[in-house]
Amino acid sequence: MTGWLPRRILISHNLHEGLGDYVTARRPDLEVRARDAAEIRAEDVEWAEVFVGFRPPRKGPWRELRWIHCIGAGVDAFGFRTGLSPRTLITRTSEDFGPMIGEYCLARALAVAQRLRQFEADQRARRWKPQHPGHIRGTRAVVVGTGAVGRGIARTFLGLDARVDGVSRRGTSRAPFEAVFPIGRFEEAVAGAHWLILACPLTEASFHLLDRARLLACGGAYLINVGRGPLVEEAALPEALERGALSGCALDVFEEEPLPPDSPLWAHPAVSISPHVSGLTTIPGAGDGFLACLADVEAGRRPRLAVDADRGY
Fold first, then answer.
1. Residue 192's closest CA among 240, 146, 247, 150?
2. Of the four listed, 144, 167, 237, 297, which is most buried by Cβ atoms within 10 Å?
3. How far is 91 from 110, CA to CA, in rounded Å?
4. Three-state DSSP state, 273
5. For position 88, which CATH number holds?
6. In which band, very low, low, confident or very high, does the pLDDT at 2 lie, cut at 50, 70 and 90?
């Protein structure tokens, strides 16, 4: 089979300055334009045969591109409700974000268990108020999403002797989870959980996976969202917190990013916010994944890292 030989590569390199140089050093035969997202012009998109980036360009006919390579853990920015043709090839990074995101989730859980925010407030107030810290050991985490990221999170919590169960579409058993529940048994899965962690991709099936009804059924679990913002019905979070259905939240992703200044989540004492940084792609991870896909395309093979348009990941 004769492959396609794309040569004009447009790279959006926000937080990945040097990605263009990385690709060029390994494939000097390519024509590479590397731009900050805000600097990409419509004519850059019209020139390109392939776009490499985390989000679509703000200008230009990017939906007409034959191939898009996403450097993030999820590809929803390109494929979820964007009107992109299912014929467009979308590929994803080869990087394993599980260990990195696992550390983020564990740090958030430890901050809660060890009362770090309270002790910091006491320090600022010069207040001596001993309280017993909690522990991860002996607690139960439920991870929604049993892919590479979910498994990395599970291994991190297991390292501190927590029990970790999973939730997936079908509930298929998968190591290292002790049990895996289908999403239809969500209330059963979350019963008694200390930590509820969202690590699944955003698709039509998972949009508002945690709607108001499921949020109110969480039984006081602490929610950590490292998947995508629209997995949660964000407007229902304050009610779930006030009613004690959630004991708190650590949110790295939001329905609208950046999170609007008037969002009530900013000032809520039980909410911790970070700006979508739990699993940042490295330059080698982004570059090597793209180059592996390019080699497959040139050889006439469907890339191993190609996204299934029907599933959305």
1. 247
2. 167
3. 35
4. strand
5. 3.40.50.720
6. low
